[in-house]
Amino acid sequence: MLRFLASRLGTAVLVLFVLTLVVFVLARVIPTDPAVVYAGPKAPPEELARIREQLGFDQPLIVQYLGYLGGLITGDWGNSLATKRPVLDEFATRLPATLELLFAAILIAIIVGIGLGVVAAKKPGKALDGAIRFLAIGGVSMPAFWLGLLLQVLFVGQLKLLPATGQFSTEVDYVSPISRVTGFPLFDSFITGNWVAYSDGLAHLILPAITLAAYPMGLIARMTRASMLEVLGQDYIFTADAYGLRGGVIRWKLALKNALPPTMTIIGLASAYALTGTFFIEVVFNWPGIGQFAANAMIAVDYPAIMAITLLGAAGYLIANFVVDLAQARLDPRVRLS
């Protein structure tokens, strides 16, 4: 098991190292002067030269890259050219909102996706199975931003049940301010018993979480159904049925455990996709997370911010796959030997 963990960690470190090189080179290839982005297009030449020297852009590329690697290791990811603040400070401010949205979406996708997959595999080819497959295909095929707009039209414009945008209503800061404990606003409002802020934040979370969960939910449901159909055709399932075990016990306790390893792989990929997918969702729902920062950084050609966001997405993808590897090794000991 230790060799398995060491192998996965070594692969992750190597991937991140190669990615830093690729991202750094691509950032320098783009024909835009970062000094102009930092100081503005009307800055005089002598000011631009001073800024290039200050930011280190006048040094050879290899020196810049080594300095960039050293900064990553020591926690200095550079300053945003647009906001003039350290990139890590921007992340610290915005990441909790993104993680709360991501966690809620993945939780919905896993619970609903696995549940739908198991139910669809109960009677393949029947009407319920067809309806679930149609729902899964729709979740995978529909663009997230379009689904978000449709949900806003329905639940905000027509039914007037949920708020349209934001993480909390403006009046929450005045009526029932949130006490900062962990830095995660919704979680902090829950553990401090601030039910006014918690109910308001939960209402704001529903639509963006459902929108973000649609794609991974569809993937998980389809993979769970396919794995369940394969497992339900095994001899030990027929033996359990012959011994008189109830269908629910066979499906949810015997078959599902052995059908989960392929589904776990999809969950890892879907989680990584959801991390980058939050960028679009946050723009649609005006969610104060990394997505808003990423969109503004791309518009402003903010090199340090774009590079940091790219590495954050890659690290999230690697972490998700590492967790999935651990879960698969736990469920199937044969994985540890691969």
Structural features, described:
By secondary structure, this protein is mainly alpha-helical. 77% of the residues lie in helices and 0% in strands. The chain has helices at 2-29, 34-39, 45-55, 61-74, 87-122, 127-141, 144-158, 172-175, 185-191, 195-232, 235-242, 247-285, 290-300, 303-331. The radius of gyration is 24 Å and the shape is globular. The termini are close together. The mean pLDDT is 84.
For the termini, the CA-CA separation is: 11 Å
SS summary, helix count: 14
In terms of DSSP E residues, the strand content is under 5%
Assembly form of the protein: single chain
Which range best describes the helical content: under 10%, 10-25%, 25-40%, 40-55%, 55-70% or over 70%?
over 70%
Shape: globular
- What is the structural class? mainly alpha
Strand element count = 0
Helix and strand element order = HHHHHHHHHHHHHH
Main pleated sheet: none
Radius of gyration: 24 Å
Averaged pLDDT: 84
* Uncertain spans: none
Strand and helix map with partners:
Layout: H1 2-29, H2 34-39, H3 45-55, H4 61-74, H5 87-122, H6 127-141, H7 144-158, H8 172-175, H9 185-191, H10 195-232, H11 235-242, H12 247-285, H13 290-300, H14 303-331
Helix pairs in contact: 1-14, 5-6, 5-10, 5-12, 6-10, 7-10, 7-12, 9-10, 10-12, 12-13, 12-14, 13-14
Short description:
The protein is 77% helix and 0% strand. With 338 residues, the chain is mainly alpha-helical.
List keywords for this structure.
globular; 14 helices; 338 residues; mainly alpha
